[in-house]
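Look over this entry.
=====
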Amino acid sequence: MGCIQSIRCKPKSFRDSIIVLEVNTSIDSNPTSIDESSSVVLRYRTPHFRACARVLVPPVSAKETWTIGWIQACNHMEFYNTYGNKGMSSWELPDLRDGKIQAISDSDGVNYPWYGNTTETCTIVGPTKKDSKFTVSMNDNFYPSVTWGVPVSDSNVPQLSSIRRDQSFTTWLVAINQATAETLVLQTIRWRMRLHIQVDPEKPLGQRAVLNEPVAQEQPQILGKNEPIPSNAMVKPNANDAQVLMWRPKSGDPVVVIPPKY
């Protein structure tokens, strides 16, 4: 009896055959750097989160196309810039803030649902005759600009007194069948970035800001049990397009300074 009729000889499905050889993830050990070269904005650059996986795919017998790569979602965002006793500006994701969704896509905004499409993904087009071995990697950090002056006023008088940020992300290594959209979660990573910068607006430019904490970030966690990807993490909008800059004065109503792009 030939192999064709025998069930035992049936090639294993893609789901059973894909092997993650190695996963590495870390946040760089350098502290957040602060740039006061502009008289209009304070800039800061956080250390990078990095994730890298080596994957082995045995020969694919079927005429299937699979993409393997990184998908990221933001689960929590606090991003407050305080201006003395005037109030604070705040970057917010309204649906996440109000608990309407549990996570929002952190895709590059072009290659949904992927974080990017250079080093972040690899596509296997079956049938293939031999093993495919490849590496997919990604990195992420924050590099924002915060105005020295109150964002809703015409005055550029420096009043910024503190910056606080606390963001959490889930990052998945995923294989997706391009025809059927079957999605296999291969690995789940959780990470968080926190910072607190104290600012003295009375001091001369170049000497105002001090990084309080944390000097080193907590390292990412590779979860022992994979988490499913929430549906919002796979579709538009992404965090960059959905975020809103609010001005929340000490007294009076909040004002939308920058509306969402989406």
Remarks:
- Residues 95 and 101 are 6 Å apart (CA to CA).
- Residues 1-9 have pLDDT under 50 and may be disordered.
- The first helix runs from residue 14 to 17.
- Residues 14-258 form one domain.
